[in-house]
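Board work, copied verbatim: Co2+/Mg2+ efflux protein ApaG
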Amino acid sequence: MVTQITSGIKISVTTNFEGTFYKDYKMHFAFGYKITIENLSNDTVQLLSRHWEVMDALNSTEIVDGEGVVGKKPIIKPGKSHTYSSGCLLSSPLGAMQGYYNLINLGTNNHIKATIPNFKLSAPFAVN
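↓ predict structure ↓
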């Protein structure tokens, strides 16, 4: 697990290798990840959007921007958390992801850019 705290927002990530499959005559490596967003501050926040940089060992980077996470814009009260699972496909058995969430403090209307720590994606057979 990797963890990062930014402005009272704690982001924790765990990953797992899901398997390989062929799509469009090309092998893909599927990875899952589970993220917990914990509000350590004294104010209620809402997650508005996300920004991802998805990198693979073949020197390819995909940028993904979007509203919310898995179709939701969760409101997280002080001391509470929101956990969700998602995944990605890589063209190689090794890669990494990093990014940030844009949140708003509902008490002050201040915006928060909470860092998602860099985390590795690796198929067990590719790691020695």
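The chain has a mean pLDDT of 96.
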